[in-house]
Design brief:
This protein is α/β, with parallel strands linked by helices and about 300 residues long. It is built from 13 helices and 5 strands. Helix 1 links the parallel strand 1 (about 20) and strand 2.
């Protein structure tokens, strides 16, 4: 998917740019294409860090947007590797294993150039900003995309301005006290809230909103199935990554209360608090998510499966 404008002037004052967005969430890719495409830029996509490096061997881009926790190779590792290649240095450590030819080709393409790299963060903490800067990133935007923020950061990095300070790099998550359990909202109301958010935030047409809802329903169903599988196999290794992705999806949908549930569960999973923190949060989160797993009809049985009602 790519968006291209004919006008040489773009919203935000920059010329038309080719932007690589590294994101495994299809809904975020669609929103980014809308925001950046409407501003006059061409958007190229990669679903993970390794795919991004392969694309950079074939195409030159003007700016890279990347999630620090992108699959296959995370955003910090991708940034460090790009910066070494730009400086004419060989990659370090385990990154080279199995991909020697790719990195040789990448070094030839990138050497002598510097591509601005922007981190994408959903409720990240301040220390994450330090890691982004140390890896060689130039700035950060919050997820989900917000038009004014994205275009302002894009104009700054495209103009060649230096790396941002920590306070400007990553938004700090607010500590939210434990709340009462969220009610399971009837599916028609929930979908109408999401539709209103997409129209208000991005001025999307009803057709594009319907496409987004279909994509989001698939993501929610995948998440619920992954949790089912993890429970059946008592294997929770991938749970933090799944919760991180779901948190971003829920923020894109404007469902901030549910995103906070995912954030708290993600933190608990990283800290190994499966029984005391993660398990009850998963029951609540999955119960609230079930109506979104099928936009065509309410899923009362699924709500009962997760909530025990």
């Amino acid at each position: 998917m790519a968006e291209q404008a004919d006008d040489k002037r773009t919203e935000g004052g920059t010329g038309p740019l080719t932007i690589l967005l590294v994101e495994d969430n299809e809904a975020d890719r669609r929103v980014a294409a809308e925001v950046l495409g409407k501003a006059g830029h061409r958007v190229r996509f990669a679903a993970n860090g390794l795919a991004a490096l392969e694309l950079l061997c074939r195409e030159r881009v003007d700016v890279i947007f990347i999630d620090a926790q992108t699959p296959a190779m995370d955003g910090l590792a991708v940034t460090r590797l790009i910066r070494r290649c730009e400086s004419g240095l060989a990659p370090e450590g385990q990154a080279v294993a199995g991909h020697h030819q790719l990195f040789v080709a990448l070094g030839k393409v990138l050497s002598g150039h510097r591509t601005p790299i922007v981190a994408m963060a959903a409720h990240a903490r301040a220390e994450a900003g330090d890691r982004c800067l140390a890896a060689g990133m130039d700035a950060s935007v919050s997820k989900p995309f917000r038009n004014e923020e994205v275009l302002a950061v894009l104009a700054r990095v495209a103009a060649g301005e230096g790396a941002a300070t920590r306070s400007a790099v990553v938004p700090v998550a607010k500590e939210v006290p434990a709340a009462r359990p969220l009610p399971v909202i009837p599916q028609p109301v929930l979908l109408e809230n999401v539709r209103a958010h997409f129209q208000r935030q991005y001025a999307l047409s009803p057709e594009k909103i319907s496409l987004l809802l279909d994509s989001l329903a698939g993501s929610v169903s995948t998440f619920l199935n992954n949790v089912d599988r993890a429970r059946a196999n008592d294997d929770w290794e991938d749970l933090p990554r799944c919760l991180h992705s779901m948190k971003g999806i829920l923020l894109t949908m404007g469902l901030e209360d549910l995103a906070d549930l995912a954030r708290r569960a993600e933190r608990g999973a990283w800290e190994g608090e499966m029984e005391t923190v993660v398990a009850p949060l998963l029951v609540e989160l999955c119960g609230c998510l079930s109506p979104l797993s099928n936009p065509a009809a309410a899923q009362g049985a699924d709500v009962q499966r997760w909530s025990g009602r």
